[in-house]
Amino acid sequence: MDRLLYIGMTAAKHTELAQTTNAHNLANANTTGFRSDFYSLMSEQVNGGGLPTRINAIADMKISDYSQGTITTTGRPLDVAINGPGWFVVEAPEGGEALSRRGDFHLTTDGMLINGAGLPVMGDGGPLAVPEHDSLTIGADGTISIVPLGLGPESSVVVDRIKLVEADAEQLRKGEDGLLRLADGSEAKVSADIRLATSSLESSNVNTIEAMVNMIELARRYEMQVKVMSTAKTVDEAGAQLMRLE
């Protein structure tokens, strides 16, 4: 009965992992620029005493869906969305640079440009700081221009350019903080070809209907796997009872 129990246990373990990942996707369905996740599984021989008759399914790595979300016009000057492939660069909480698609930018009281998660947005010259101004414009190439206080539109000056980079999706890994980095620890290549949709935001690419259906399917699958383990216990107890009768 150990094989039946082992199959049920292994399946239930990874179904629970899938449920957690699916719930995380649903929780971020309204997070700007969020990329949905899933885990890839691989088979691994169980080694030890006795014959090699067991194969274990293990979670290989977390993989993200990098397809683009829907771009919606907001009319807000500090909202920008990357139109096509590419990434914003932000300063990670523990330091260093990381990649994100969040374009819901804000200015702090001291003029620092941050995204909706409160992370500093990087420019070509480091974390972006914007002086006091009468108006601000973000260009399609990421340049930030302002009209200084008390001056007319003809006095518009370029402050900096939002750092926009390109990266091979196969080389990207998402951390526990939800930010992406290159697997080898290197920095992504700056690209002048990336274009922004200004006064717009990119939605999460989570398909909520699909995620809800998946949640129901996973719940039923988990229930079935628990029943398999319960059946294994019942059969084992019945076998032990027969042995006692002999």
TrEMBL record:
<dbReference type="InterPro" id="IPR037925">
    <property type="entry name" value="FlgE/F/G-like"/>
</dbReference>
<dbReference type="InterPro" id="IPR020013">
    <property type="entry name" value="Flagellar_FlgE/F/G"/>
</dbReference>
<feature type="domain" description="Flagellar basal body rod protein N-terminal">
    <location>
        <begin position="5"/>
        <end position="35"/>
    </location>
</feature>
<dbReference type="InterPro" id="IPR053967">
    <property type="entry name" value="LlgE_F_G-like_D1"/>
</dbReference>
<dbReference type="InterPro" id="IPR001444">
    <property type="entry name" value="Flag_bb_rod_N"/>
</dbReference>
<keyword id="KW-0969">Cilium</keyword>
<dbReference type="Pfam" id="PF00460">
    <property type="entry name" value="Flg_bb_rod"/>
</dbReference>
<keyword id="KW-0966">Cell projection</keyword>
<dbReference type="Pfam" id="PF22692">
    <property type="entry name" value="LlgE_F_G_D1"/>
</dbReference>
<comment type="subunit">
    <text>The basal body constitutes a major portion of the flagellar organelle and consists of five rings (E,L,P,S, and M) mounted on a central rod. The rod consists of about 26 subunits of FlgG in the distal portion, and FlgB, FlgC and FlgF are thought to build up the proximal portion of the rod with about 6 subunits each.</text>
</comment>
<keyword id="KW-0282">Flagellum</keyword>
<keyword id="KW-0975">Bacterial flagellum</keyword>
<dbReference type="InterPro" id="IPR010930">
    <property type="entry name" value="Flg_bb/hook_C_dom"/>
</dbReference>
<feature type="domain" description="Flagellar basal-body/hook protein C-terminal">
    <location>
        <begin position="199"/>
        <end position="242"/>
    </location>
</feature>
<protein>
    <recommendedName>
        <fullName>Flagellar basal-body rod protein FlgF</fullName>
    </recommendedName>
</protein>
<comment type="similarity">
    <text>Belongs to the flagella basal body rod proteins family.</text>
</comment>
<feature type="domain" description="Flagellar hook protein FlgE/F/G-like D1">
    <location>
        <begin position="81"/>
        <end position="145"/>
    </location>
</feature>
<dbReference type="Pfam" id="PF06429">
    <property type="entry name" value="Flg_bbr_C"/>
</dbReference>
